[in-house]
Specification:
Elements lengths: L2 H23 L10 H10 L4 H10 L7 E3 L5 E3 H8 L2 H9 L6 H7 L2 H10 L14 H7 L5 H9 L11
Antiparallel strand pairs: 1-2
Helix pairs in contact: 2-3, 4-5, 4-6, 6-8, 8-9
Length: 167
């Protein structure tokens, strides 16, 4: 191989390395963020308006992964909204639609077989907060009869507060 061919090939190879990370990591054509008001509407509807959630999700499918920033680190997704108000139909619909289930939402649904093993494996997670500072006992109370076993579990661990101020 001639020296000029080698240098030319080296140049092409080096430029490929500059372009490759963006291509490999999928960063070259990043779509625009959803407008904040659309995310706010979706999360707000997640508290109580299943028809509006379905309507917005049909128009903006990736809202299923979105969170609204209420300020001071208080982020909330639609599944978390439905979870802390006890809207089981909402939470189940969102899970069926591909939402990322949270331990707090699963607590409200009374999914003891899913929640308890994780909390036993990672004991400090029991003190984690849901949106607005709502605790695991709060979510278990919202789950009513479906979550009585989990409510008793939290009480056995000394947890009684239902809301903690977000600092």
């Amino acid at each position: 191989m001639k020296r000029s061919q080698f240098i030319k090939g080296l140049g092409l190879g080096a430029s490929a390395f500059l372009v490759a990370p963006n291509t490999i990591l999928g960063q070259e054509d990043k779509p625009a963020q959803y407008q904040k008001d659309i995310v706010s509407q979706f999360v707000g509807a997640g508290h109580s308006n299943l028809d509006k959630v379905k309507e917005l999700l049909a128009e903006f499918p990736n809202l299923i992964y979105s969170s609204h920033d209420w300020g001071n680190g208080d982020f909330e997704s639609a599944i978390e909204a439905g979870g802390h108000v006890g809207h089981k139909d909402m939470v189940n619909f969102l899970i069926d639609s591909g939402a990322r289930p949270t331990l707090h939402a699963l607590t409200m649904l009374g999914k003891t077989d899913l929640v308890k093993p994780i909390l036993e494996a990672y004991p400090q997670v029991i003190h984690s907060l849901g949106p607005h500072g709502f605790t695991f006992p709060h979510h278990a109370q919202r789950g009513k009869e479906d979550a009585l076993e989990l409510l008793a579990y939290f009480e056995s661990k000394g947890l009684t507060e239902t809301k903690v101020a977000i600092k």
